């Protein structure tokens, strides 16, 4: 059963990342309805028009509480008496909107809600889009369409914002399973259940990690033990742990592989300097560094080098990834969290400047009690890169 749920979710993620819509059904004990779901990162006016035509219900935009807070979207009411506790915020339009109601303007508002570089100043309230706030542990806390849609965005590795619209039957009543199946067949839509997402998320949190050998690794930066973990990649993920024991909460660094910076000392980024400084700090203070095979923020070395070509022609690292049909950051942290748990590192201080790493690890059950900044400085080559990390990725520099 679990394997079928995982397959169903993976197929749905593939469709959503192609910009398609899917049908998401909840349990009979709840509203027992179906919603059309799309990812806000891939929204288009055509998809909004299609969703409105097919479903005819209320168009809403689920997101994480952190995203809603960053945009200043407060709850619509201070006394939520809705039977299922659905968390509507104040409605909103992007400031470029005129009436705000057309498929084109609604699509733009939705896309900008998912754009991590936008702020509260980019929106006006009230408007024609209805944001919804998901519970922090999404479907593992509440099995609603809000949480299901946000969970799909998280699994897809995109901005945690989606759009949903309730599906009405032809007679105006809520569409139940027979009508939902008919709609799916007639329009070639994948039909997913929230229970599938729950099974997927539970499996994700209980991911089995194949631990390999541990060897002694004396280095110029400290005395370490290195353990390899087979997670299905060509090369293993590696946990480099200091032999210097500490009694306090251990310091941990998640370092994504960067061949150009780590191996060749590239000045285009700060990756090599971060790796070196992290090992020095952990060598002195104790703790561990987890070396993840997520080159180029998860897009791979080949695509990263293509991104470099764009960066040499006035794109920044954020926009270059988007131009190549990637997300700005496609890294995932479920595997990292599982390895940390297996190594007994479930309560840590995280050596990072990236707030997303902190939140993602917390999402997967790692208790990040504090973050420790990792500042390596700026050179003449990487100053624009560092500015992009601060402004567009929200790094705490």
Spatial extent as radius of gyration: 22 Å
Number of helices: 15
Which whole number gives the mean pLDDT?
89
Helix content: 25-40%
Structural classification: alpha/beta
Summarize the biggest pleated sheet. Answer: 7 strands, mixed
Identify the strand order in the major beta sheet. Answer: 4-5-3-6-2-1-7
Shape: globular
Q: Please write the string of helix (H) and strand (E) elements.
A: HEEHEHEHEHEHEHEEEEHHEHHHHEHEH
Low-pLDDT segments: none
N→C terminal distance:
45 Å
Query: Approximately how much beta-strand content do the residues carry?
Result: 15-25%
Q: How many β strands by DSSP?
A: 14
Structure description:
With 397 residues, the chain is an alpha/beta fold. Helices cover 38% and strands 22% of the residues. A 7-stranded mixed sheet has the order 4-5-3-6-2-1-7, with helices on both faces. Strands 8-9-10-12-11-13-14 form a 7-stranded mixed sheet, with helices on both faces. Helix 1 crosses helix 5, helix 2 (45-55) packs across helix 4 and helix 5 packs across helix 7. It is globular. The model has no long low-confidence stretch (mean pLDDT 89).
